[in-house]
Amino acid sequence: METDTCSIDTTIMSNNPELVGIGAKPERTIVDVNGVKIGGKEIVIMAGPCAVESEVQLTETAKIVRTKGASILRGGAFKPRTSPYSFQGLGVEGLEMLERARKETGLSVVSEVMDTRQVETVARYADMLQIGSRNMQNFPLLKEAGLTSKPILLKRGMMATIDEYLYAAEYLLSQGNTQVVLCERGIRTFESSTRYTLDLNAIPVLKQRTHLPVIVDPSHGTGVRSLVATMAGAAIAAGADGLLMEVHYRPEEALCDGSQSLYPEDFEKMMGNLRKIAEAVGRSIHAL
Ligand code: PEP
Ligand code: MN
Q1: Tell me, what's the pLDDT at 15?
Q2: Whole-number Å distance between alpha carbons of 111 and 129
Q3: Ligand 2 (ion): which residues have CB within 5 A?
Q4: CA angle, residues 111, 116, 118, in degrees to nearest 5
Q5: CB of 132 closer than 6 A to ligand 1?
Q6: Which of 163, 64, 177 is nearest to 131 (CA)?
């Protein structure tokens, strides 16, 4: 079964932004993160802790995800936390840990930037800049990040429509940065049995409306560890080009998002299933 992303419904093309719109270029964009290509036939797995917490936590987790099939290491050094009293991340020290983990494992690194003043610093250490859900419409940040030459992972705002999301991506492209990956991470709905509602519709909608790669974050999208693997599989079946997921070597000790972080054994089991689902839709999981 091939996921059909080619037949384009022209009725939803009409108000696409100029540069991100599907009509802007003949071929789909492939984003190259240090040699790892996102948006082609291969599905890219980005995994790691929510936050960088310590050298041991990061290296142990990085080694696990690397061995089990991830290509990119995630981990926030600057964390957007609801409460100002919660752990805010290790900042530059955390970025240095990510750099050492990259050297040790060969994984590329994606890390969040929350403020225009952090762009230069995060870009010095990370291979890909993450712009989080809460900052999807932080226009000065989008402009500043769009001026860098680093690939950008732009997460969907939890209350953003697809139109708003595409215009946020347009900000990045309009500054000259064409290396943009979109990430559906769940939206706010009336449903309270999960942290957010993972909008699987967004995958085919975005793939019809834009040439940019689309990945999915089932960790924030559900907020519940036991649901993550199922929704990861669903995302691949629906045509996602990659996954961003939280894995912790000891989730019960996590300083952030432990209850949605996979145990190493969950991650390994899930990866086995994802390989089969990828094959069923004519794709494969990228291996380093
Ligand atoms: C994250 O990925 O660490 C994160 C904070 O996600 P979001 O911006 O989607 O809430
Ligand atoms: Mn998190």
Answers
A1: 82
A2: 6
A3: 50, 257
A4: 45
A5: yes
A6: 177
Residue 61 tokens, joined = 């987790």
**CB 220 near ligand 1, within 6 Å:** yes
- Determine the Cα–Cα distance for residues 46 and 286; give it in Å rounded to an integer: 11
Q: What is the pLDDT of residues 3-61, one digit of tens each?
A: 555 565 555 556 899 999 999 999 999 999 999 999 999 999 999 999 999 999 999 99
Return the best residue to mutate from 197, 217, 222, 261 for the ligand 1 pocket (most ligand atoms within 8 A of CB). Answer: 217
Token pair 């609801």: residue: 82
Tokens standing for 34? 């240090």
Q: Whose CA is nearest to atom 10 of ligand 1?
A: 133
**CB 28, CB 213: distance < 8 Å:** yes
Burial group, residue 85, by CB count within 10 angstroms (0-12, 13-18, 19+): exposed
Helices (H), the chain: 55-68, 92-105, 119-125, 139-146, 162-174, 202-209, 218-222, 225-237, 264-280
